């Protein structure tokens, strides 16, 4: 038996419409077929609802008000309808929370936390990290409680946060409580790759050779105006100048897994880190250096790939994550019909 639970960053990665995400859809089908259960921690639920309300909804309502005000002051067009933002937000939050609850087996409530243990962690964590990792401690404590409740089952936690595999205090808690059934995995595709259908002949080289670079380039160029917003906040509200240079510098396999209902029709879901460099024409309206980019101020200059060059041009240079969906012919041991599905810009992960 598997009990699966996600960190907040995994849900954020799936997007607001997480139930429409391909990986999440295949995961739920796999869990249902395998009789495994998805558990949602209450701390994660609260974090997600807070993110949805304050980082997503409020921005959405602000954007609508801004557009409404612009229409209202224009004497040549009919005004758009105003909205009751408070009522809309309240209904949307309820729907979002209900959708989260509906996709899992149960909500795991946070159990009693020993205050002495929390103090010890806080002191230890202060030596290891400058971050306040109290919420990570709560999640880890809940995982240990779940593992103790179901000692004969696997408790699989999916998170990209390395504290759950590297923190010394967390490792010691496993020893103290004699926990051997917690497994931390970095992503849903990795879980499905490890525990789903295994196709022996597949490897990174075969998967990489199954895609066409020109298809990636065509699809990224369709969205070429999306990238400057990662260089400067100015382009979150204004159209960027013409793209004058675009090149793909590198492609590497990031993750892949196979899925099948009956092993006769095998689907391959694969993702690729595609490093690209896009340069845009000189910005003449403003000085882009007056607008912040999406990196914190304490980043080292050599770590910032997205930048404004000496000619006041936006330069996007980084990996994006491109997703494909295809089919596998088990008899011929070939990948067929690899189709471009989607991409995520600004994919900040370490190269494998």
Strands ordered across the widest β-sheet:
3-2-1-4-5
Low-confidence runs of at least 5 consecutive residues: 296-301
How would you classify the helix and strand content by structural class?
alpha/beta
How far is it from the N-terminal to the C-terminal residue, by CA? 31 Å
Mean of pLDDT: 88
Helix content: 25-40%
Morphology call: globular
Radius of gyration, in angstroms, nearest whole number? 23 Å
Number of strands: 10
Q: Helix tally?
A: 11
Described by strand count, sense and barrel closure, the largest sheet is:
5 strands, parallel
H/E element sequence: EHHEHHEHHEHHEHHHEEEEE
Describe this structure in words.
The chain has 352 residues and is α/β, with parallel strands linked by helices. The protein has 11 helices and 10 strands. The protein has helices at 8-14, 22-34, 42-72, 85-102, 115-128, 134-149, 163-166, 168-176, 188-195, 204-209, 213-222, and strands at residues 2-6, 37-41, 106-108, 154-158, 182-185, 243-259, 266-280, 307-308, 314-329, 334-344. The protein has a 5-stranded parallel β-sheet with strand order 3-2-1-4-5, with helices on both faces. A hairpin with a 5-residue loop joins β8 (307-308) and β9 (314-329). α3 runs antiparallel to α4. The longest helix has 31 residues, at 42-72. The two termini are 31 Å apart. The relative contact order is 0.11. The model is unreliable at 296-301 (pLDDT under 50).
List key phrases describing it.
11 helices, 10 strands, alpha/beta, single chain, five-stranded antiparallel beta sheet
Give the SSE map.
Layout: E1 2-6, H1 8-14, H2 22-34, E2 37-41, H3 42-72, H4 85-102, E3 106-108, H5 115-128, H6 134-149, E4 154-158, H7 163-166, H8 168-176, E5 182-185, H9 188-195, H10 204-209, H11 213-222, E6 243-259, E7 266-280, E8 307-308, E9 314-329, E10 334-344
Parallel strand pairs: 1-2, 1-4, 2-3, 4-5
Antiparallel strand pairs: 6-7, 7-9, 8-9, 9-10
Helix pairs in contact: 3-4
């Amino acid at each position: 038996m598997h009990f699966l639970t996600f960190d907040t960053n995994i849900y954020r990665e799936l997007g607001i419409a997480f139930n429409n995400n391909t990986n999440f859809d295949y995961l739920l089908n796999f869990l249902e077929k395998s009789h495994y259960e998805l558990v949602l921690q209450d701390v994660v639920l609260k974090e997600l609802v807070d993110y949805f309300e304050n980082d997503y909804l409020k921005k959405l309502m602000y954007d609508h008000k801004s557009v409404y005000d612009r229409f209202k002051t224009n004497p040549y067009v009919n005004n758009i309808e105003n909205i009751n933002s408070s009522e809309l937000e309240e209904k949307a939050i309820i729907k979002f929370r209900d959708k989260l609850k509906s996709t899992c087996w149960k909500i795991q409530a946070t159990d009693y936390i020993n205050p002495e243990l929390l103090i010890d962690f806080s002191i230890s964590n202060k030596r290891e990290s400058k971050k306040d990792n109290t919420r990570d401690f709560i999640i880890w404590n809940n995982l240990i409680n779940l593992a103790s409740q179901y000692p004969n089952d696997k408790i699989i936690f999916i998170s990209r946060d390395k504290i759950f595999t590297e923190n010394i205090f967390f490792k010691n808690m496993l020893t103290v409580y004699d926990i051997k059934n917690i497994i931390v995995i970095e992503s849903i595709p990795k879980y499905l790759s490890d525990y789903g259908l295994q196709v022996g002949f597949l490897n990174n080289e075969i998967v990489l050779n199954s895609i066409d670079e020109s298809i990636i380039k065509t699809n990224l160029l369709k969205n070429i105006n999306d990238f400057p917003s990662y260089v400067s906040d100015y382009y979150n509200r204004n159209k960027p100048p013409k793209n004058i240079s675009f090149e793909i510098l590198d492609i590497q396999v990031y993750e892949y897994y196979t899925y099948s209902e009956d092993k006769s029709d095998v689907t391959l879901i694969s993702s690729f880190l595609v490093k690209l460099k896009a340069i845009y024409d000189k910005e003449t309206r403003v000085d882009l250096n007056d607008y912040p980019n999406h990196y914190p101020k304490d980043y080292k200059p050599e770590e910032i790939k997205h930048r404004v060059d000496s000619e006041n041009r936006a330069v996007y240079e980084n990996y994006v994550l491109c997703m494909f969906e295809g089919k596998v012919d088990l008899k011929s041991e070939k990948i067929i019909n690899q189709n471009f599905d989607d991409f995520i810009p600004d994919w900040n992960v370490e190269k494998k």
